[in-house]
Design brief:
By secondary structure, the chain is mainly α. Helix content is 64%, strand content 0%. It has 20 helices and no strands. Helix 1 (6-23) packs antiparallel against helix 18, helix 16 crosses helix 17 (279-289) and helix 17 (279-289) packs antiparallel against helix 18. It starts with 5 loop residues before the first helix and ends with a helix. The mean pLDDT is 97. It binds inosine diphosphate ribose (R7I) and magnesium ion (MG) (2 copies). Inosine diphosphate ribose binds at residues 57-59, 96-101, 124, 127, 129-133, 136, 250, 293, 295-296. The site of inosine diphosphate ribose has 21 residues, from helix 3, helix 8 and helix 18.
């Protein structure tokens, strides 16, 4: 068995960074015009933005922690992971973190904390967070493990350091599977979705998932993945429909499916997006144009598209505009080394 090409690992890390940095400007706006997003990327193409000047947010700050921990420990280590998240927050608290998760970091920073999963379990009156913070940072897990069972297991554990609600960590598992599968090569939309639906059906039928979902709707992930399948058979799906049916919010179930949809939809040209943009560029532009939690939806869509299309499809001018852009090559290379070493030992 041979590992995926290096350009896919580079692409996933760079795509995630682009989504966060370019999407950041639009975060929280409900109405984003496609023309404004295209205007923003044109500014990068025309070098109207200084090198490295688009700042990344908590999405990337945490993704970098995940990558660094995996690379240094050469495996998943929840204690090291939790420590990195908390230290990173302490050093740069103004990256735009969610309001709730800050309490987790503060508890993790207490030297008496000896169970790194406990602070997350105490969030939101013991229900745990359903925010998308577990999913937004998960790409490095998908890049480090060739075995899908490992991807699922460690995506869940990684998310559980901050997100104890199954609605939160199931989103992280779904996003990790979406990246992991896109990394493997050519894909057919229907098969890809059927595979994800199959995996989520198993997860969403466990007791805790059924009970956590009761406050919202039944099978929040599977129901959206199925809607998505119907959307993909139509050419006229409007932005309003996507936002209403799939969501564009800060909850994991209202953003992870939307990121996956953006990637799949943008495999085909879009009459409203100029033809000179490739599938990866289209994915970033489209996912931001949906408004809402734009940095996070675009970082997740960007990671999937980057894993699929590879770094050759990432425009140099976009990439170079992002803060710490050079690091994505380092992370991609080291994570692929780890992927290969796991492949050899299996
Ligand atoms: O999930 P999280 O890390 O936030 C990530 C988001 C991304 O958009 C980033 O770009 C950044 O902007 O933040 O942080 P949490 O604080 O765990 O969850 C985010 C928000 O979701 C919380 O601040 C709450 O508003 C909401 N939320 C909940 N509200 C009520 N009850 C999450 N879980 C609950 C809940 O159980
Ligand atoms: Mg953010
Ligand atoms: Mg966000």
């Amino acid at each position: 068995l041979s590992p995926p090409a290096l350009c896919r690992f580079h692409g996933a890390m760079a795509g995630a960074l682009l989504g966060d940095c370019i999407g950041g400007e639009f975060e929280g706006k409900e109405l984003v015009r496609l023309q404004d997003v295209i205007g923003a990327v044109r500014a990068l193409e025309e070098h109207r933005q200084e090198e490295g000047s688009l700042m990344y947010s908590d999405d990337t700050a945490m993704t970098r922690c995940v990558a660094q921990s995996l690379i240094i420990k050469q495996d998943f280590d929840e204690i090291d992971m939790a420590k990195r998240f908390a230290e990173e927050y302490k050093e740069q608290p103004d990256r735009g973190y969610g309001n709730g998760v800050i309490r987790v970091f503060k508890k993790l920073l207490n030297p008496n904390c000896n169970d790194v999963f406990k602070p997350a379990r105490e969030q939101f009156k013991g229900k745990g967070s359903y925010g998308n913070g577990g999913a937004m940072r998960i790409a490095p897990i998908a890049l480090a493990y060739p075995d899908v069972q490992d991807v699922k297991k460690f995506a869940k554990k990684n998310a559980e350091v901050t997100h104890a609600s199954s609605l939160g960590y199931n989103g992280a598992i779904l996003q990790a599977l979406a990246v992991h599968h896109a990394l493997q090569g050519e894909l057919q939309k229907d098969n890809y979705l059927d595979y994800l639906i199959g995996e989520m059906q198993l997860l969403e039928n466990d007791e805790k998932s059924l009970s956590d979902a009761r406050d919202f709707q039944e099978f929040p992930y599977c129901s959206r993945l199925k809607k998505m399948k119907a959307f993909l058979t139509r050419r006229d799906v409007s932005k309003e429909e996507v936002v209403n049916e799939l969501g564009n919010g800060i909850a994991a179930f209202e953003s992870v499916p939307t990121a996956i949809y953006s990637f799949l939809r943008c495999m085909d040209p879009d009459p409203e997006i100029p033809e000179n943009y490739n599938g990866l560029e289209r994915t970033i532009i489209y996912s931001i144009s949906l408004g809402g939690d734009t940095d996070t939806i675009a970082t997740m869509a960007g990671a999937i598209a980057g894993a699929y299309y590879g770094k050759d499809n990432i425009p140099h001018s976009w990439w170079k505009s992002c803060e710490a852009y050079k690091d994505t090559d380092y992370f991609g290379e080291k994570l692929r080394d780890l992927y290969c070493s796991h492949l050899m030992s299996s």
